[in-house]
Every structure is written in structure tokens, then in C-alpha cells.
Amino acid sequence: MSYSYLFKYIIIGDTGVGKSCLLLQFTDKRFQPVHDLTIGVEFGARMINIDGKQVKLQIWDTAGQESFRSITRSYYRGAAGALLVYDITRRETFHHLTTWLEDARRHSNSTMTIMLVGNKCDLDSRRAVSYEEGKKFAQQHDLIFLETSAKNDENVEEAFNYTARIINEKIEKGIIDVTNEMNGVKVGNAPTATTNLLEKPTTSEPKGKCCG
Amino acid sequence: MLQIKEFEQIIMSRDSTSLLQGLCTKSLSGNLGQSTIRSIIWKIFLGLLPLNKKEGTDHWNAKVNNDRARYEDLIKKHEIDPRKTQAANSSEDDVVDVTFCDPLSQSQSNPWSEFFENSELEKVIVQDLKRLYPEYPFFRTEEIQNYLKRMLFIWSKENDDISYRQGMHELLSPILLVVYRDAQDISKYEYMMTEEEDQKLKLILNLKIDAYDLPIFKISNRIQYLLLEKKDPELYRHLIKMAIEPQIYLLRWVRLLFGREFHIDDAIILWDAIFSDCGGFRAEKVSSSDIDLSLVEHISVAMLHYIRKSLLASDSSYCLKRLMRYPPVEDVHIFIEQALESRSRPNSLLPSMEPLT
To answer: PANTHER family given for it (chain B) (predicted)?
Structure first.
């Protein structure tokens, strides 16, 4: 299938926060309660539509454990978007965000869009990180933010799509140079101009809270 | 009783060289099948039950007892209960040394700090064990989970430069399964009856075949760039054109010795061959340089070759998907056959296989 753009994503965050489950929900529309541990990296792809353009998302899902870090780091380069995931029921995964962020910023290109994702918001009774804390962290570090539930398929589409819309805006504003593949964007063979000029671009912010 | 016969054959054998050869041939030809003494055979391959010319198998009992005692010692060594240390201290001179035994003390020698470290390590291991073979009831029981936890914990403590790495539990679990199956079948045999866990631990202590010690990039590159170019140049060029980096899929293939690519029983058949093939395990002191992974490399190439049709017909996204999710295979033994054949003739191409549609 032809596409206008290909965006490369990377999913990062501590082990067990639900990175692979988010990907599986996004690409296959299903949830696996006990997911295999990711060894190294996993891969997924899906076509989405942004402002009338077909955009192919190529997603690298990385292993969370420290011992894989040297391998997973190489995937930052050449990524246009990153989903930085923590588990709202495990506070330590929230504490580790700073390290993840430093790592991401150090090894990625400066135009990479980072989406902070507080996953497992279906487990509200076991919540250890409030929505406000997540939002505050995101604001402080200039990230976009959503809470998701891979289990209930809440905000999963939004997390991937919203990131893509921001990348698309950056392309339109000339912030991302599409001729340089290191920026994580590849031009496909379908037209890249907005096909329907009457259609309003939908850049409105999705509601960040899920389950609420 | 088949297993007892098999076992007696080994015990009675006075010619250890031909015994070892016989076992290797059996394993490489996939004829270990449902053997109920596979755990003993693996121990021979991995050098835990060494065969030497003079003594044959006579020293095995002593060796096993020795290994068991060693494991017991390791359990004791790493079982830290600061309260006990405290109690022991206070009974001696009736004063609790607060600087030493205060849970909040930052001192390195504070038993509490190691206690906290240990429970942190245990937590990490338990978190991964929760996700181990969810569809396989054997691995879900508390008993098995506890065995695995203890073995991994002690191994990590003993090898703290490496410590626990994700995937180790998936290397350990098929070994545990094999030992358990054998133990059930052979329970009349006193030899295998009690406290098998120490032997299992010994196995993993020596199992340094995976990527922790060997640079995974090197192996992955050798497989996809050097070996595949010689064996299937067309596929080699295609994977380059599709910009498939070798370590993306080979990291998992090699690190878990194909445990994720096949059903656990099929993986065990591959392990029969891999363990029997690599004499390095049987060296006096196993070091990573002794471990010859060439069979693993050739099996990987055979696996690539097996799905060549669908790879050649696909774009890079689909290629990656195919490589990350290997299709079901009827008989994994074809990979061993082809790997052996291919290794013996380093400069010839792989023969074409049944096309995969």
C-alpha cells in the first residue's frame, strides 16, 4: 500500500510497564494479559491517516531492562517519535522517567517528538502516580502526555496518532527535514500535499485522562 | 523399563570415548526423542558428569554429592537475615551494635544493606518469572517458580559482575523441565530421587553459551553477513537491500537458543544437538572462548534459508515480521541436518528446500 510518509517510532520505558501491550493493541487490536518478555527489540507497523494523508508508522518496541540498553539505544537515532511509558501503579517506573528522558535526548535527534504515556489506567484502585503528577512532569520537560489502558484500548490510538500529528506539523513548518532519513521520516510515493484543503486539520488535543 | 536400560548402558560402559560418541550421534540425529535420561545425557555434554577414561562413571556419585553440598553451601551463604546477625551479636556481648545493625545505616558492611539489595534482586527476578510461559502450567506452579527464583538468585549473587539478565530464566526453564520429566519417570531410581535443584543450578552455572559473555553483534553479523553470503547469496543481498540489521532478530534467536522460535519440546531437540556438538562445555574450566557456537550459527542460516521464499517476496516491514515471528515448523530436525551438512561443506550453497508458501 502506498503512503505519503513513513514515520519511525520507538517505545521506551521500564520493564513491565506495558510497552509491548500498547503496540499489540495498536497494531492487532488485542490485549495479551501476560505478554512475553521483550528480548532486544520487537517490531510493528500500521497505516494511519493524518489530515487525509496515508502515513505508515514503523514502530520499534524495546526491551526495558538495563542489560539491553546498549542495543536499544541505537534505535533512538532515526526515530521521529518516541513513546515514553510508565506504569501508573508502580511509582518507581515514574521515578525512572528522568533517566529515560536523558538517555533519549542524548541519543536521538533534536526534532524527535516525545509522548509521555502513563499506562494501566484501568487499574485505578492501585494507582500510585496521579494524573496531575504525570501532567506536571510532561509540562516541565516539554512532552505531550496521555494516560492509556492497553487492556481496555483507551487512548491507545490517540497516543500514536497524536504523536504523528505533531510530527506532521513539524514537517509542514519545516522543522523536520524530510530529505534526511536520520530524522525518522521517509517520503513515500503517494502525494504528500494535503489532498482535501477544505478539510480542517484535526490538531485538537485528545482528552488526556482515560477511565474518567 | 527403557530408561533403566538406557541408564545401565551408560553406567556399564567402560569405553567412555565411544559412549560419548554414541550419545553425540544420537543427539545430532534427533534420536534422543523421548529419552527419559535426557537430563543425565545433557549433564555429560555440559561437563557436569565428566567421562574420563580411567574411572568411567564410577566417580559420578561423589561428584553429584559434592555438587549438592556446594549448592547447599551457596544457599546458606546468600541467605541473609540481619535479625539473626543481630541476635548472634547481642547474645555474645549483650549489646547491639547499632552502627552495624541499624537498618538505616549507610555503612557497606551493614547486613541490612545487603538484605535490601537481595530483596531488590529477588523482586526483579520474580517480576520476570510471572511472565514465563503463561500457557504452560508446569511453569506456573509456586514450587517451580520458587526453584527458578532461588537458582537465578544464587547464580546472580555468585556472578555479580553479570548478575541477572532478562532471558536467563528462559534458558533455565527448559533445563528444569527436562530434569523434572526424567525425575518423574525414574523416581524408583535412588540416584535421581532427591534435591535435583542443585544439579540444575550447576547446569546453568556452566551454561555460558549465550550472549552475556559473547558479543552478540559479532555473532549476528557473522551469521547474516558472512555465512549467509556463502550459503544463500540471493537472500543475503535481499536482506541488505531491505536494511535488515542482523541483531534485531538474531539477538533473540541466539540469546535464547531458539526457545522463542519453536515449541519448548522442539527447542529441546535443538538443544540436544547444540549441547552434544559443543565439546567446549566439557573442558575442565569452561570459558567463553571454549564455546563453539558454529552449530547455532549454521542452524540460524538454515532457518533463514527455510523461509527464503517469503522473505524474498516481501518488503522490509514484512521481512521483519517474518523474522520476529518465525512460522511453525513440522520437524525442527531438518535444521540440524542442514546445519551439519552445511558446516561440513563450508564453500557450497545450501540446497533448495521445499518451497514455503
So the answer is: TBC1 DOMAIN FAMILY MEMBER 5, TBC1 DOMAIN FAMILY MEMBER GTPASE-ACTIVATING PROTEIN
Domains of chain A: 5-187 (3.40.50.300)
User: Helices in B130-221 by DSSP H: which ranges?
Assistant: 142-158, 168-185, 190-193, 197-206, 216-221
What CATH number does the domain containing B312 carry?
1.10.472.80
Model pTM?
0.83
Confidence check on the interface: ipTM exceeds 0.85, yes or no: no
Chain B stretch 291-330, residues whose beta carbon is closer than 8 A to a beta carbon of chain A: 317, 320-321, 324
User: How many contacts, defined by CB atoms under 8 Å, are there between A and B?
Assistant: 50
Domain of residue B228, residue span: 216-342
**B232 falls within a domain:** yes
Residues from chain B contacting residue A36 (CB–CB below 8 Å)? 131, 260
Nearest CA in chain B to A66: B165
- At which residue does the C-alpha cell 520437524 appear? B331
Q: A66 exposed, middle or buried (CB, 10 Å; 0-12, 13-18, 19+)?
A: middle
Question: Using an 8 Å Cβ cutoff, are B296 and B335 in contact?
Answer: no
Question: Model confidence over A170-200: pLDDT tens digits?
Answer: 999 999 999 988 899 999 988 776 544 444 4
Residues A57 and A46 sit within 8 Å (Cβ to Cβ): yes
